[in-house]
Write a structure and sequence with these properties.
five-stranded mixed β-sheet; 7 helices
Length: 298
């Protein structure tokens, strides 16, 4: 598995690397930015991925991936979110479990969620600008005016300007269930706020067209070093196909630097659960290193 990553080095700033196993090869001299690479990949994804491999084979600078496992600080090497100029969008109600949860939280019974689950047109909404996205070990937020906050573990598609999927990563779509449940028109307030999105650690380079990668999606939440919730689902339970979601996202929209699409959650904690400041959220998708974040009130 080859993973394209962004990271910070205290001496050199923002860098790009190709992770293979436990090692990361710096490819920054050959690849200037993620956005530039996504643009260059349009219409030629396999060739663009092969160019990353060749750049890594020629690069002299290698570091252990474990060196990046530190909270973000300008003084240490650490993971950066795998976006630079890419907006993040999200798809909703793509799993049966998500449909059920949205109906349960809605004051009016949530008929709108049942209808969109079965409709031809998927639910798609804007989630975050690139500078808002948190990477591994950065803080994820819960709103101070929300009573019921949850993480949503999701497979995130990384898409180039030609609307081709170059790979995927792990995503956390933080949500305020009580705010959305009060009125569906409050969705932007329930979904879009400071530190409401995390991605990473990197992009698994896996061109996808019509079939999802066959991977498990799991989440573990800990409080005071004790596990308080854990669950697992699979991409096999996604109702809509990758090409279907991307095609709708690209209708009347263009993404000159690429875009990331969260594909919905199939895991929802019980109705009596809500996140608290200090909780630790770990999202594991397939063999990708888990995305870990601490919760803070924003």
């Amino acid at each position: 598995m080859e993973i394209l990553i962004r990271y910070h080095h205290p001496d050199f700033g923002i860098r790009l690397g190709l992770q293979r196993g436990g090692e990361i090869t710096d490819i920054s001299p050959q690849v200037s930015s993620l956005g530039d690479w996504l643009r260059a990949s349009a219409g030629r994804v396999p060739a663009a991925i092969d160019e990353l491999r060749k750049a890594a084979d020629q690069a002299p600078f290698i570091l252990p991936a474990s060196e990046l496992d530190q909270p973000p600080s300008s003084r240490v090497s650490h993971w950066l979110p795998p976006v630079d100029r890419q907006d993040v969008w999200a798809a909703g109600v793509t799993y049966e479990r998500s449909r059920q949860a949205r109906q349960e939280e809605a004051i009016d019974g949530g008929d709108v969620y049942a209808r969109v689950y079965a409709a031809e047109r998927p639910e798609l909404f804007f989630k975050a600008r690139a500078p808002w996205v948190q990477g591994p070990l950065g803080p994820v937020g819960i709103r101070g005016d929300a009573r019921w906050s949850v993480p949503e573990p999701e497979l995130a598609l990384v898409i180039n300007p030609a609307l081709e999927i170059v790979g995927w990563t792990a995503g956390n779509d933080m949500s305020s269930r009580d705010i959305e449940g009060e009125n569906p028109l409050y969705l932007p307030q329930a979904k879009i706020y400071t530190h409401a999105c995390a991605l990473g650690p990197g992009i698994v380079l896996d061109p996808i067209i019509v079939a999802w990668p066959d991977v498990s999606i799991g989440i573990t939440i800990s409080r005071a070093e004790q596990q308080i919730f854990a669950a697992e689902t699979s991409t096999a339970r996604l109702r809509r196909s990758p090409d279907e979601l991307v095609a709708y996202l690209g209708r009347s929209l263009s993404f000159p630097d690429g875009v990331v699409l969260l594909t919905g959650t199939g895991i929802v904690p019980p109705d009596d659960f809500t996140l608290q400041a200090g909780d630790r959220v770990e999202i594991a998708i397939g063999d990708l290193q888990p995305l870990i974040n601490k919760v803070a009130v924003v």
